[in-house]
From TrEMBL:
It holds the Pfam family HTH_3. GO terms for molecular function: DNA binding. This is Transcriptional regulator. It comes from Salmonella enterica (Salmonella choleraesuis). Residues 9-58 form the HTH cro/C1-type domain. The lineage of its organism: Bacteria, Pseudomonadati, Pseudomonadota, Gammaproteobacteria, Enterobacterales.
Amino acid sequence: MHTLTPQEIIIALNELGLTQTDIKDRTGISQASLSRIYSGRNGDPRLSVVRTLEALYQEVIAKTRA
């Protein structure tokens, strides 16, 4: 099974209707950090950021499947 990169998670969340502002508001990750991850300028974010993005992604996916 393919594990999504942080950049892919942000892209997937965007495709599911969340903006970077929505992601920021729901995770507490700064807009600047999200932008750097999205653009590929930060290919190795902190583990805490990765886990937070993964948790939001799982939450959103679960709601879309419900």
